[in-house]
Amino acid sequence: MRRYIAGHTGLVGSALVRRWAGQPSMELLTATHAQLELTEPRAVWAWLEANRPHEMVLAAGKVGGIGANAGEPVAFLYENLMMEANLIRGAWQAGVRRLLNFGSSCMYPKACPQPMRPEHLMTGPMEPTSEPYAIAKWAGLSLCQSYNRQHGTQYLTAIPCTVYGPGDHFDAQTAHVLSALIRKCHDAKAQGARSVSLWGTGNARREFVYADDLAEACELVLARYDGDGPINIGSGQTCTIRELAELVADVVGFQGELQWVRSEPDGALEKRLEASAIHRLGWTARTPLREGVARTYQWFLEHETHQGASKVACAS
Ligand SMILES: NC(=O)c1ccc[n+]([C@@H]2O[C@H](COP(=O)([O-])OP(=O)(O)OC[C@H]3O[C@@H](n4cnc5c(N)ncnc54)[C@H](OP(=O)(O)O)[C@@H]3O)[C@@H](O)[C@H]2O)c1
Q1: Residue 121 CB: number of other CB atoms within 10 A?
Q2: Radius of gyration of the CA atoms of the chain, in A
Q3: Selected catalytic residue, list 133, 164, 225, 297
Q4: Does the annotation count 133 as an active-site position?
């Protein structure tokens, strides 16, 4: 069985590689960004035609926190649209029957009832900052469902809560909140700073899943999920951004003050996914938040030593 992971060097993709590498019954197919530009249709289709995977996971994407979404809306819409369109059409052309695509909790309305259920999708306006990214994610979901309807494929879409872990991006300007907090607290400690300033009030509540736990959920979805609609992958591990910042500061060993810049946005007050469908498949998140943050910080120390923090976006 040949399984292709698009975006295998990223946060989610590298966790999938850790889970599946070395399984004797499976040949893992990968190509780096330098080897295969996924926004180029002909290159993607030719590569898939030549390699003919049986299954695919679309872990490639243009991904980032509020700052990145606000600064590069064109790239978040265009690149994600192109990658999904090329990979999903290429999958069908190459005879791939089963594929896992990723949506995002940004697809849910900004004022969504909590916890967010798939039936809440498309029931209200989305958060404007991440709307271009969310619309690309919408297009990916709809394309998968359209292929299923028209061609009888099984192209699935999972919607994870915020993912973190080894292989994350740690740029304070563009990263998701947890990895940006690690960068910020690490740099503040290294520079002997007395305080760090963080966006918002710290009161927004978010849900986090460790990348290797998500990889386990993806395996179950690929093997056993047969619904047409998207499946939420929520860990149930929620905390406020303030609690998260205190936890990160503790793990990193930064003992200075956390100063909240209340004039900066919080984003939605709460984002929590209703996850009964993935629980029914037998999955629960195993990694407690503190343990996951400690492992992520260890990875950061081993791989990311350059400096460069400034403002930290407080929601993802
Ligand atoms: N992270 C989250 O919290 C989260 C939450 C919900 C859903 N998701 C979804 O999960 C998927 C994976 O996210 P992630 O966090 O793992 O992202 P990531 O860490 O940024 O990884 C993205 C991967 O895609 C590759 N890539 C990006 N643009 C490419 C291009 N034009 N051509 C070829 N390869 C390209 C990257 O390679 P290079 O680095 O070499 O460019 C990298 O391997 C995305 O669809 C994302 O929307 C993520």
Answers
A1: 19
A2: 19
A3: 133
A4: yes
Which residues partner with 5 through β-bridges?
A: 57
Q: Tell whether ligand 1 has an atom less than 6 A from the beta carbon of residue 9.
A: yes
- Pairwise CA distance, residues 148 & 143, whole Å: 9
The correct answer on CATH 3.90.1150.10 for the domain covering 169-206+238-269+287-303 is: no
Cβ(59) – ligand 1 distance below 6 Å: yes
Segments of the chain with pLDDT less than 70: 305-316
- 2-163+207-233 and 169-206+238-269+287-303 have identical folds: no
Residue 163, ligand 1, Cβ within 6 A: yes
For the chain, what are the domain ranges? Answer: 2-163+207-233, 169-206+238-269+287-303
> Are 9 and 36 a contacting pair, CB within 8 Å?
no
Predicted pLDDT at 285: 98
Output the DSSP codes for 141-209: HHHHHHHHHHH--EEEEEEE-EEESTT----TTTS-HHHHHHHHHHHHHHTT-SEEEEES-S--EEEEE
pLDDT for the residue 305: 64
* Class of the CATH-defined domain 2-163+207-233: alpha beta
> Phi, psi (5° rounding) for residue 246?
-65, -40
pLDDT of residue 313: 36
Do residues 277 and 117 make contact, with C-beta atoms less than 8 angstroms apart?
A: no
How many Å separate Cα 245 from the centre of its chain? 20
Q: What does each C-alpha distance from 112 to 83, 138, 246 come to in angstroms?
A: 28, 16, 27
Instruction: Give the whole-angstrom CA distance, residue 83 versus residue 43.
Output: 11
User: Do you find a cis peptide bond into 115, omega within 30 degrees of 0?
Assistant: yes
